[in-house]
Amino acid sequence: MSPNIDLENGIGLDMRLITKRFPGVLAADQVNFSVRKGEVHGLLGENGAGKTTLMSILCGLYMPDDGEIFLGTERNAVEKVNIGSPREAIQLGIGMVHQHFRLVQSHTVAENCILGLSDKSIIINHTEIANRIAAIGERYQMHIEPDSYVWQLSIGEQQRVEILKMLYRNADVLILDEPTAVLTPQESQALGITLRAMAKEGKAVVFISHKLDEIMEITDRVTVLRNGCNVKTVETAETDKEKLANLMVGRNVVFSVERPSFKARNPVLEVDGVTAQNDKGVDAVSNVTFSVKGGEILGVAGVSGNGQQELAEVITGLRRSTEGTVKVGGINLTNRTPDKFIFNGVGHIPGDRIGVGLAGNLSVSDNLIMKAFRGGVVSRGIFLRNEAVRDYSDRLINDFDVDTPDRNTPVRNLSGGNQQKAILAREIMARTEQGTRDNGLLVAVQPTRGLDVGATEVVRRLLLTQCEQGDAILLISDDLDEILSISTNIAVMFSGKIMGIVDGDKADISEIGIMMAGGDKSAL
Ligand SMILES: Nc1ncnc2c1ncn2[C@@H]1O[C@H](COP(=O)(O)OP(=O)(O)O)[C@@H](O)[C@H]1O
Ligand SMILES: [Mg+2]
């Protein structure tokens, strides 16, 4: 095989017919992928499409089962390369910023940059390193203090250190794996500028994402992966969001979920001055006050890890609060058990689908009745009524369109989207059957994370239907687009506090971004 070199000046990278199998999964199926010097190349695909796997092969973490890689850099003419380890990848000028950072928290920025550099001939001169970091920062429009300790930095700043580390090692090919997932809109924008600057300086940049807007904004070309296959590579200027979405999911996609415009009713959830600690005993939620009315979706926006998870747990009885009160339908449920919350009409769609949400080894049917049996729908006394169980689960499978061979299939065999539909079916119906409809509260945490575009629409629609029928919905999501598309009102969380609550109709994305970074809304 010879490289498909349209690589300008012979600089860039070409992966030819790459195949990678994991037990039971073909993660890359004869994929061709090439990046040129001077371009930002988007790698787009849904969760599980094989993006991380393909790039992990490039950076020496996985060996391909088949295929070849050709590389040309400023230092070496185009040649076939074997990338046997991350160290070899770095030597070849390939660097990757992973979804989970690999910095040493107790070291400074400068120390992290030189960590692992094997060239012992360089006498480590602090001023020289600091100067070099400053120069890189200036060249790529990315400000970083070389003497800051990593633990002092925000997630966005830590990501810049990871990028800096690659540039410090003179990487020619830079790969960023879903870098904007942990950033505020402003930080994402700044990252876009840095990536453009890198391309302009002659680097080849691979930008992995499943978000269409940023792919359209930042990239020169985009390659779409689906099920481990390269579907197509296109010029970004010659495509649009709809076309890319269709390539990504393999069928037509309409973007059409509408924000509710229902009349909000009485407050269902009232949270007043709640403070709660995380698992390390540090305050993760501080003095939080808000309420959610029936017929309202309150979206909680924020960079993940700012107390959203802990807040959801307090509101569903899974975590104790140290101060404040939580009322549902006027009843004080502060620090009561999850049972009491369920009994009072609180449904919970947890962020952790298998684990908290479902019992993977149990059947679809067992999972669906898990909460209903308390209300006497499928039981008499302590005995389950088999026939009622069958009817009830078949009805839910049908109504919520859960795609499963039958009700006895273990729920872990279902796709993510269908697992999520099963959770929604259970959480929504358990309350309806118990006649607690008027006080209904649904706490939805990352309800569409990892779902394909189609399943995402179904889940959002189900939330809207519940809202229309009078439920109060607390929607906690890292996906700002999701929050913006269906929330009646939007609360922004930062460092355990609510920085402000804005009207969903009038929400201004840059205003929300500033609050996500800890800025004060009133200071605008
Ligand atoms: N180390 C691994 N072992 C087994 N299967 C894996 C491993 N890494 C990824 N996979 C599987 O390979 C497929 C592609 O995954 P991945 O490359 O992470 O996709 P993406 O980054 O596009 O979300 C998925 O089905 C995933 O479950
Ligand atoms: Mg990935």
Task: Write structural notes for this entry.
By secondary structure, the chain is an alpha/beta fold. It folds into 2 domains: 8-105 and 171-249, P-loop containing nucleotide triphosphate hydrolases (Rossmann fold), CATH 3.40.50.300; 267-523, P-loop containing nucleotide triphosphate hydrolases (Rossmann fold). It contains 16 helices and 22 strands. The chain has helices spanning 51-58, 86-91, 109-114, 126-139, 155-168, 185-200, 212-218, 241-249, 308-315, 338-343, 364-369, 386-399, 416-433, 453-468, 480-486, 509-516, and strands at 12-22, 25-36, 40-44, 66-72, 79-81, 94-97, 173-177, 204-209, 221-226, 229-235, 267-277, 283-293, 297-301, 323-328, 331-332, 346-349, 379-380, 383-384, 441-445, 472-476, 489-494, 497-503. The longest helix is centred in the last third of the chain and has 18 residues, at 416-433. The termini are far apart. Bound molecules: adenosine-5'-diphosphate and magnesium ion. Magnesium ion (MG) is lined by residues 51-52, 177.
| Hetero compounds | adenosine-5'-diphosphate, magnesium ion
Number of helical runs?
16
The domain tally reads 2
> What is the helical fraction, as a range of percent?
25-40%
Explain briefly what this protein structure is:
By secondary structure, the protein is of the alpha/beta class. The protein has two domains: 8-105 and 171-249, Rossmann fold (3-Layer(aba) Sandwich), CATH 3.40.50.300; 267-523, Rossmann fold.
